[in-house]
Write a structure and sequence with these properties.
Number of domains: 2
Order of helices and strands: HHHHH
Largest sheet: none
Number of helices: 5
Strand content: under 5%
Distance between the termini: 48 Å
Number of strands: 0
Oligomer: single chain
Helix content: 55-70%
Structural class: mainly alpha
Length: 102
Amino acid sequence: MHPPLDRPHPMCQEEINSFKECHATNSKLKFWACNEIKFAMDKCLKKEKLVLLEKMNADFDEKRKREDDAFQEAMGHTQSFEEFLKNDKVYLEELRRAKSAK
C-alpha cells in the first residue's frame, strides 16, 4: 500500500505520473499490468521516506538533551538519572552482586 499520491512527492513525481498513466490506459481486468511501475514507485517512495526521516531526526540528540534538561529543571532535579545511579550505593552493590553471581 502506498501513501496518498495527491500530495507532493518531489523525489517520485515521475514514477507517480507513470503509475497514474498506466492505470488510466490499462483495463481493470489486467490488474497485473502496472506491477513493475508500482514496484519502482514503491521503491522511490520508500527512499523518499528515509530521506525525510533522516532530515527530521538530524538533531534528535540535541532535541532530546533540551527536553531532558527542561524536565530536570521543572522537577527541581540537578542531576540526571544516570548520574544518580552512578552514585547510588544500593544500586552499585546489587550490580556488583549480579556480576559476581554469573
